[in-house]
Write a structure and sequence with these properties.
Layout lengths: L1 H10 L4 H12 L1 H17 L5 E6 L4 H7 L2 H7 L3 E6 L11 H15 L15 H12 L6 H14 L2 H10 L4 H17 L7 E4 L2 E4 H14 L28 E6 L5 H16 L2 E5 L14 H17 L13 H8 L1 H6 L3 H13 L8 H10 L4 H4 L7 H14 L8 E5 L7 E4 L4 H12 L1
Parallel strand pairs: 1-2, 5-6
Antiparallel strand pairs: 1-3, 3-4, 5-7, 7-8
C-alpha cells in the first residue's frame, strides 16, 4: 500500500510542490558547495584523514573497468582507501533488470577499448565462479586489494578457473564469511545512499566508476591531497572523433528525450551542437517519464540522479537553475502538441524549449499562455496547433517511441540510436555520458 501511494504521488500533478522543492534542493549549486564545505570542516575538526570508500562488485562489468585504476588512484592521492565488497544491487533502484544486465555488458565491451582495457565477454560469469571470486577477495587485505582484485576480475570474466583456484588456495573464505562480508558491504553502500557497484564515496558524495572519477580527483586536488603537481587524470579516455565532421553521406540519429529527466536536460545542448557539427539527420522521439510509466524511483536514487545530473550540467556549461517538474497534467498537455509540431519540422526545438522552461526557468509547461507564446516563437500558427491540445494522438506516438527504445535494451533517457539513412544497422546507446561514444560511432562510419 505504501509503494502504491508513493507511486500515485509521484505521477500526480498535485504532488508538484514537494517534488519541485526536493529537485531544487538536490540540484542547487549553493547547496552542493555548502555540503562540501561542512563535510571538510567536520573532517578537520575530527582530525580524520581523507577516507575514500570504493564499492566493488565482482560480476559488475563496470567494476572490471574501475578496478584497473585503483592502484594508480591510491598512488596519486594522500587518502585512506577502503575497498568495500558488495553483492546484488538494491532491487528498489533496479528497473528493467534484464535490459539493464544486457545493456551493461554491451556498453562495457564498447567503451573498454577507449580506456585500453581488454573486455570482450559475451556472457556473465556463472554463480560458482562469482562465489569463488568473492571468497578470494573476502580474505585479501586492503593494501593488496587493488592488485588481487584486478587479477581476480580478469580470471573471472575470462573463465580462467585454474587461476581462480590457485588464488582460492591462497585466500580462503567460508560461505558464511562471504555472505556476512557482502551483507556488510551492501549495508555500508546503502547507508551512503547508493545502490550499484563500481562507485567511490567521499564525504557525502558519490562518484560512479571511470565516468565520474575525475570529479573525485578534482575535489581531492582542491583539498591539497594530490601527491603530484602534474594534475594528470588517473584514467584517460582515448577518443578520436573530431569536434566537427564533414562527409558526403549522412546518418540518422534518433534522440529519445523525456520532459521530466534532468539527464535529458543536460544532454539537449550537446545534441543541438552535434546536429550543427556532424552530418546527421536528427529524429526526435520523446517518451513518457519513468514516473509516468508506472515506475517508482526511491528517494535515494532520485537524490543521486538529480545531484549528479546537476554536476554534469555544470561541467558542460548548461546549469540547472529553477526547476518546475512537469509530471502529470503539464507533461500530458505539452506532449499532446508534439506530433503536429514534429510534423512541421520543429520537434527537437519544441522539446528543447520545454526542457529549458522546466529545468532553468521554473515554468509550468502546462500553462496555455506559455505554450501559445512558445508556439509563436517557433514560427508556427497557434490557432492551428492548439486544435491538438489535450487530444490523445500523442499516446500511441510515445508508446511506439518507448518500444523502439526498448528494442535496443535502453529503458532510461536520454537514449540514442544511430542508423543508416534507410534505418538499417542500428547502434543504441543510453545516457548523456555516452554522447562521446555516439560521436565515435558516427566518425567510424563516415570519417
Amino acid at each position: 500500500m505504501i509503494k502504491f501511494i508513493r507511486s500515485v504521488l509521484a505521477r500526480r500533478t498535485f504532488a508538484y510542490k514537494l517534488r519541485n522543492k526536493a529537485m531544487n534542493m538536490f540540484s542547487s549549486f549553493d547547496n552542493f558547495k555548502s555540503i562540501r564545505e561542512k563535510a571538510e570542516v567536520k573532517r578537520q575538526a575530527e582530525n580524520r584523514p581523507h577516507e575514500v570508500l570504493y564499492f566493488h562488485k565482482v560480476d559488475d562489468p563496470y567494476s572490471h573497468l574501475t578496478i584497473q585504476y585503483i592502484d594508480k588512484f591510491r598512488d596519486s592521492f594522500d587518502v585512506v582507501f577502503k575497498p568495500i565488497l558488495v553483492g546484488e544491487e538494491n532491487p528498489a533502484a533496479l528497473h528493467e533488470p534484464t535490459l539493464y544486465s544486457d545493456y551493461c555488458l554491451e556498453d562495457v565491451k564498447r567503451i573498454a577499448p577507449f580506456y585500453n582495457i581488454n573486455f570482450s565477454e559475451k556472457n556473465y560469469p556463472t554463480g560458482d565462479l562469482i562465489t569463488k571470486a568473492n571468497g578470494i577477495l573476502c580474505s585479501v587485505d586492503e593494501e593488496n586489494f587493488g592488485e588481487i582484485a584486478k587479477e581476480v576480475s580478469s580470471a573471472l570474466w575470462e573463465g580462467n578457473v585454474s587461476r581462480l583456484d590457485e588464488l582460492a588456495d591462497k585466500y580462503k573464505s567460508s560461505n558464511e564469511e562471504i555472505t556476512k562480508k557482502l551483507q556488510a558491504g551492501n549495508e555500508i553502500r546503502n547507508n551512503c545512499d547508493y545502490y550499484f557497484g563500481s562507485a567511490f564515496y567521499y564525504e557525502k558524495e558519490i562518484y560512479w566508476g571511470v565516468d565520474r572519477l575525475h570529479y573525485l580527483e578534482e575535489r581531492l586536488t582542491e583539498l591539497g591531497a594530490n601527491k603530484s603537481s602534474s594534475n594528470e587524470p588517473v584514467c584517460l579516455i582515448n577518443t578520436k572523433a573530431p569536434d566537427s565532421l564533414v562527409a558526403e553521406n549522412k546518418l540518422n540519429l534518433t534522440y529519445y528525450p523525456s520532459l521530466n529527466s534532468p539527464y535529458t536536460f543536460v544532454s539537449a545542448k550537446r545534441v543541438r551542437e552535434l546536429e550543427e557539427n556532424y552530418p546527421i539527420n536528427l529524429i526526435t522521439r520523446p517518451v513518457l517519464p519513468m514516473l509516468m510509466r508506472m515506475m517508482v524511483i526511491p528517494d535515494f536514487k532520485a537524490k543521486y540522479i538529480i545531484s549528479d545530473a546537476a554536476r554534469e550540467g555544470r561541467k558542460h556549461n548548461y546549469e540547472m537553475k529553477e526547476i518546475y517538474s512537469p509530471i502529470g497534467k503539464p507533461a500530458r498537455k505539452a506532449y499532446s502538441l508534439f506530433p503536429i509540431i514534429d510534423s512541421l519540422g520543429k520537434g527537437f526545438d519544441y522539446i528543447d524549449e520545454l526542457l529549458k522552461a522546466s529545468f532553468q526557468d521554473g515554468i509550468n509547461i502546462g500553462d496555455e499562455a506559455y505554450l501559445e507564446n512558445l508556439i509563436n516563437q517557433l514560427g508556427l500558427d497557434w490557432s492551428e496547433i492548439k486544435k491538438e491540445l489535450n487530444t490523445s494522438k500523442w499516446k500511441k506516438v510515445l508508446n511506439d517511441n518507448v518500444n523502439d527504445m526498448y528494442a535496443g535494451n535502453c529503458w532510461g533517457v536520454p537514449s540514442f540510436k544511430i542508423t543508416n539513412m534507410d534505418g538499417s544497422d542500428p547502434f543504441y546507446a543510453w545516457g548523456q555520458d555516452r554522447m562521446w561514444l555516439i560521436k565515435e560511432e558516427i566518425n567510424l562510419r563516415l570519417g
